[in-house]
Structure to design on (584 residues):
C-alpha cells in the first residue's frame, strides 16, 4: 500500500506533533462532524464503511454503536488499550507514534455515541505511554479540540487515561469495565451487553485503539473510499503484527486479504538462518496453530478466509515458528500463559488451564506416558464451549490444534512413563 | 499517611471519576501508595480503602489479582524479563536465565545487596523488539527493548552501582 492510513508516522515521521497533525487536516473530521452532522449520521457513515472491530472479534463498529439503549444518559466510551495478546504490539505503536489520529478517533466515537466522557484503559505496563497521552490530552484541551462546547457546539467531551495493573483478562471488554470500576478484572455474564449496561451500569461503547484510529480517515474521505481498501466483507487497512522467526519483525499496515506469504516473505524478509517455516500462530496465542503448507501461506488474511483453513484472524498477530521448534513446547508456553492469566471466575477455565499445564509440564520434563496425550485432549475437550469468556476457549486452541496437526512432536515427548 | 503527604495527587486522581464512583480510583491510588512506600502493606490497604469507601479486603484482592502490585518488599528495581512465546523464540528465556546466573539468583529472587529483583513476566507488547524487559521502581515502569545479554548486564551494573551509592 503506497499510503499508510493508520501507521501514518511511517510517511510523516513528526505526525506526533500536534501542529503537524493539524496542518495536515487533523481534527477537521471532528469539527465537521460536531458542527455539521448528527451523531446518527456519523454512525451511518461508519456502518456504510464496513469497519469491523480490530480488537479480535471483527464485529462491525457502527452496528455495535447502534445498539446503545436510546435516550439513556450519561453514556461512556471506553477505549480498550489493554494490548496484552502475545505477539500483539500495534496499539502501542499507534498511540506512541500517531497519537492525535487515535485521539481524534476517540472523540469521533464519543460524539457518535453521545458520550461526554471517555476513558482510555491502558495496560499498566504502558506507564510512560499513558503519561504522554495525558500530556497530549491537556494540549488538546488548551487548543479547544477537547473540553467544553467543542467548536462552539453544545457538545463537550473529556477524555481520561486509566492504567490497568497487569492482567490479560482485562482485554475482555466486560472484565475491562469491572477493572475500570475498581474491581477484579473478571468478565460479566452477558446479556446485558455494555451497550445497554456498561460502565457504572450505563450504556457504553468499548472499542479497540486501532478500530478508533480508522475513524478520522473514514469521516474525512468517506465510506466509499474506505471500501476501496481490503475485501468486500473485511474492508479497510489492517495492522498486522509480525513476530517470532522472521528477519524483519514489526507492524505492517496492509489491506485485509493480504496472504501470509506476502507478509512473511516480502515484508518480513523471510526466516533467519535459511530455516524453513513450520507453523504459524495467526492471532497470537489465541487461535489454532496452522501448519505452514502452501495452501495456508497463500490464504488471504481476512475474517472470512482463516476459518476455512482451520484458524482465525483475531488481532492479526502473526507469530512465525521455524522448523527447529517443538510444537509441544509451544503448547506448553501458551498454556502457561493462559493458566497464569485465567481470572479464576469460571470453573472450566480455572481448573482446565491448571490441569493442562500439569500434563504439559510432565510432557515438557520428559516423564509423561503415552496416555497423557489423550488425557491432555480430554481436559481440553472438557473446557471447550463451557467457559464464561473467550480466554478459556482460546487456551485450548493451540493445544488441540497442536496435537491434531503436529502429533509426532507430542509423541516424541513421551518418556519412560509408557 | 497519603492523605497528609499527597493531598493534591489524591484529589487529581479522584477527579477523573464521577463523585459517586470513587472505587474507580482504587487502582491509581494503589500505584500512588506503592510509589510512596515501595510495596503495599496491610496498613496501606486500609488507607486506600478508606479513601474510596470499600473494605480493605476488597482492596487487598486487587493486589493479589493484578501482577504489577506487590505486597512484599523486593529489590529497589524489579527487572521483569518477558519470557512469553514471541520473546522466547528470540532469546528472551536465555536472557533471563543468563542474567540470573550472573547475579547468582533464581527467577523471582532478589540480589543480596537488595538492588534488583529479577522476574519472568508475560507478553509486554514489545515482541518486534525482543528480547524485552521492563523495569519497575518507585518512579514507574519503563521499557528496555532490543536487548542483548551485554546490554542487560550493562544496565544491571548501572542499577547496582546506583543502589550502592544511594
Amino acid at each position: 500500500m503506497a499510503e499508510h492510513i493508520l501507521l501514518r508516522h511511517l510517511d510523516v515521521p513528526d505526525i506526533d506533533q500536534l501542529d503537524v497533525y493539524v496542518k495536515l487536516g487533523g481534527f477537521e473530521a471532528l469539527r465537521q462532524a460536531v458542527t455539521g452532522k448528527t451523531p446518527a449520521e456519523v454512525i451511518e457513515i461508519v456502518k456504510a464503511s464496513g469497519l469491523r472491530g480490530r480488537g479480535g472479534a471483527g464485529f462491525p463498529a457502527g452496528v455495535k454503536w447502534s445498539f446503545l439503549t436510546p435516550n439513556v444518559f450519561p453514556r461512556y466510551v471506553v477505549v480498550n488499550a489493554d494490548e496484552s495478546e502475545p505477539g500483539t504490539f500495534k496499539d502501542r505503536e499507534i498511540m506512541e507514534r500517531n497519537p492525535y489520529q487515535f485521539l481524534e478517533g476517540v472523540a469521533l466515537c464519543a460524539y457518535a455515541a453521545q458520550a461526554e466522557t471517555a476513558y482510555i484503559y491502558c495496560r499498566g505496563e504502558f506507564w510512560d505511554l499513558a503519561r504522554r497521552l495525558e500530556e497530549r490530552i491537556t494540549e488538546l484541551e488548551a487548543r479547544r479540540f477537547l473540553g467544553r462546547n467543542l467548536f462552539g457546539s453544545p457538545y463537550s467531551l473529556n477524555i481520561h487515561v486509566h492504567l490497568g495493573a497487569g492482567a490479560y483478562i482485562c482485554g475482555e471488554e466486560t472484565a475491562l469495565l469491572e477493572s475500570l470500576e475498581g474491581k477484579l478484572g473478571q468478565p460479566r455474564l452477558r446479556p446485558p451487553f455494555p451497550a445497554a449496561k456498561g460502565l457504572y451500569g450505563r450504556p457504553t461503547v468499548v472499542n479497540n485503539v486501532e478500530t478508533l484510529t480508522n475513524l478520522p480517515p473514514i469521516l474525512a474521505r468517506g465510506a466509499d473510499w474506505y471500501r476501496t481498501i481490503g475485501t468486500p466483507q473485511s474492508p479497510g487497512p489492517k495492522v498486522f503484527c509480525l513476530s517470532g522467526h522472521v528477519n524483519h519483525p514489526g507492524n505492517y499496515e496492509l489491506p485485509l486479504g493480504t496472504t501470509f506469504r506476502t507478509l512473511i516473505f516480502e515484508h518480513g524478509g523471510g526466516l533467519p538462518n535459511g530455516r524453513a517455516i513450520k507453523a504459524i500462530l495467526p492471532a497470537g496465542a489465541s487461535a489454532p496453530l496452522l501448519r505452514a503448507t502452501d495452501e495456508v501461506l497463500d490464504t488471504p488474511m481476512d475474517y472470512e478466509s482463516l476459518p476455512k483453513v482451520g484458524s482465525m484472524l483475531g488481532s492479526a498477530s502473526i507469530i512465525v515458528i521455524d522448523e527447529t521448534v517443538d510444537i509441544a513446547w509451544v503448547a506448553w508456553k501458551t498454556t502457561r500463559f493462559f493458566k497464569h492469566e485465567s481470572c479464576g471466575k469460571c470453573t472450566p477455565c480455572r481448573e482446565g488451564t491448571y490441569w493442562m499445564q500439569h500434563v504439559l509440564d510432565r510432557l515438557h520434563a520428559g516423564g509423561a506416558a503415552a496416555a497423557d496425550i489423550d488425557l491432555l485432549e480430554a481436559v481440553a475437550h472438557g473446557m471447550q464451549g463451557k467457559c464464561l469468556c473467550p480466554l478459556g476457549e482460546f487456551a485450548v486452541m493451540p493445544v488441540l490444534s497442536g496435537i491434531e496437526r503436529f502429533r509426532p512432536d507430542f509423541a516424541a515427548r513421551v518418556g519412560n512413563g509408557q | 499517611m497519603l492523605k497528609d503527604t499527597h493531598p493534591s495527587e489524591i484529589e487529581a486522581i479522584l477527579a477523573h471519576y464521577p463523585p459517586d464512583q470513587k472505587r474507580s480510583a482504587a487502582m491509581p491510588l494503589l500505584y500512588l501508595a506503592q510509589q510512596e512506600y515501595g510495596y503495599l502493606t496491610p496498613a496501606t490497604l486500609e488507607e486506600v480503602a478508606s479513601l474510596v469507601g470499600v473494605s480493605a479486603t476488597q482492596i487487598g484482592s486487587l493486589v493479589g489479582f493484578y501482577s504489577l502490585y506487590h505486597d512484599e518488599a523486593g529489590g529497589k528495581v524489579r527487572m521483569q524479563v518477558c519470557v512469553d512465546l514471541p520473546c522466547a523464540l528470540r532469546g528472551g528465556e536465555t536472557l533471563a536465565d543468563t542474567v540470573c546466573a550472573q547475579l547468582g539468583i533464581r527467577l523471582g529472587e532478589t540480589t543480596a545487596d537488595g538492588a534488583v529483583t529479577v522476574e519472568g513476566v508475560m507478553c509486554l507488547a514489545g515482541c518486534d523488539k525482543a528480547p524485552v524487559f521492563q523495569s519497575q521502581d518507585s518512579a514507574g515502569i519503563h521499557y528496555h527493548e532490543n536487548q542483548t545479554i551485554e546490554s542487560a548486564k550493562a544496565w544491571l551494573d548501572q542499577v547496582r552501582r546506583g543502589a550502592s551509592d544511594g
Notes: Chain A has three domains: 8-226, 237-322, 327-411.
